[in-house]
Write a structure and sequence with these properties.
Layout (H helix, E strand, L loop, with lengths): L2 E5 L2 E4 L2 E7 L12 H18 L8 H9 L4 E10 L10 E10 L6 E8 L8 H15 L4 E9 L8 E2 L8 E2 L3 H8 L3 E12 L4 H15 L3 E7 L7 H10 L18 H13 L2 E10 L4 E11 L5 E9 L8 H16 L5 E7 L3 H10 L2 E12 L2
Length: 382
């Protein structure tokens, strides 16, 4: 729908009036102004259940509060939209939210957006009001490009009913409401990521076979290290280097994403945020023994309040060490570690660029199965 600005934070869309507010950063979740972070978590839960049938990936209030408090490496703003012009005082007043993240280093020309609207409030203009306000804030902060991701169940066959990014890998349904909304707002589909889930436990014989084959290829020049939550001081500089290389050594298609520099200080900040948001973390790294340097790593996050859920985060093998099956070695080692130290885990969630055939091949061999597609959209704002 077309919309017009009507004053301080208000937008008229058809017969509905929406007002966009900036979410405050409360002192605690019990504070009166915690309505905003609680609304983000509540709406996230509704959206995830509506889309996937479960809330494994939903934000918690503590995660939202932690996210907004840390402004050191990115400017982070959360918006909330309400029907009418009243000032919200409760999470129930909020129809939708938008998160804006703007890196302070690296990709300083881009704003990353995430828009969530309650299922019952969709198609009435709340999303349009949020996106318009988020884009305006991005422009005010000197950002020329906006990137947003949308979730899509399944993957349609190739044809006129499907949208495909320029990479030629991955598809979404052309008539999906999220796709039509993004296109109407002027966004271009640039990349498709496969969203996959691994049901646990994995049959031990499969892990044994895959590990044996991979370790034979890796040879004796590599050994594994594992740590929980906090990176050992001895590896801190090298882990910061690996995190930086995640932005240069993985496919980003046509998205305007530059090198994302990580320092030891930023690694420690990331670890502190995990703890504050009630996440545990496990890292398995591969050391190249002849040089004493880390050749790759894989990281999982463990929600402390969801003992059956695992979030597979980054996995990277540096370009100069590829072709030795280190990705498989590390991922098998992680699944063995989870079986011993997180026996309650039942599902591992992961995302991979559809053009990243090598990593997808590892995941498929381990038993990950496609659930859907995470589509990356981009719009030039200026």
């Amino acid at each position: 729908m077309m919309h017009r600005r009507t004053g301080a934070g208000a937008t008229t869309v058809a017969d509905d009036v929406w007002t966009v507010h900036r979410v405050p950063v409360p002192e605690s979740l019990d504070a009166a102004d915690a309505w905003g972070v609680r609304a983000v978590a509540d709406i996230s839960t509704q959206v995830e259940r509506d889309h996937w049938g479960y809330d494994d990936l939903a934000y918690t209030p503590q995660h939202c509060l932690t996210y907004l408090r840390n402004q050191q490496f990115s400017t982070r703003i959360e918006l909330a939209v309400v029907r009418g012009t009243a000032v919200p005082t409760s999470p129930d007043d909020v129809a939708g939210t938008a998160a804006i993240s703007m890196p302070r280093e690296g990709t300083t020309g881009t704003a990353f957006l995430e828009v969530l609207v309650r299922p019952a409030e969709r198609r009435h203009g709340a999303g349009s009001a949020l996106v318009a306000a988020a884009e305006q804030l991005a422009l005010e902060h000197g950002r020329r490009t906006a990137i947003v991701y949308t979730d899509h169940t399944g993957e349609p066959p190739a044809g006129a009913a499907a949208l495909e990014p320029p990479t030629g890998s991955g598809r979404i349904a052309a008539d999906d409401p999220a796709a039509t909304f993004a296109l109407r707002r002027g966004y271009v589909l640039e990349q498709a990521e496969r969203y996959s889930v691994l049901e646990l436990p994995v049959e031990p014989g499969l892990l044994e076979r895959l590990e044996s084959e991979a370790r034979e290829r890796a040879g004796a020049d590599y050994r594994r290290h594992v740590w929980t939550d906090r990176t050992p001081d001895a590896w801190l500089d090298q882990v910061a280097h690996l995190y930086t290389r995640m932005s240069t050594d993985v496919p980003v298609a046509g998205l305007e994403i530059d090198e994302d520099p990580w320092s030891p200080e930023r690694v420690r900040s990331f670890e502190a945020d995990n703890a504050a948001a009630r996440f545990g973390a496990v890292t398995i790294a591969a050391e190249h023994v002849p040089t004493g340097t880390l050749a790759g790593f894989t990281l999982v996050k463990l929600p402390l309040d969801q003992r059956d859920v695992v979030h597979q985060e980054d996995t990277l093998v540096l370009r100069e060490h590829r072709g030795r099956r280190l990705g498989m070695v590390m991922k098998v080692a992680m699944l063995r570690h989870l079986a011993d130290h997180r026996p309650t885990a039942r599902r591992v969630h992961t995302w991979n660029a559809e053009e990243n055939a090598f990593m997808l091949g590892i995941n498929v061999a381990l038993g990950f199965r496609r659930r859907g597609v995470n589509a990356g959209w981009q719009r030039r704002l200026a």
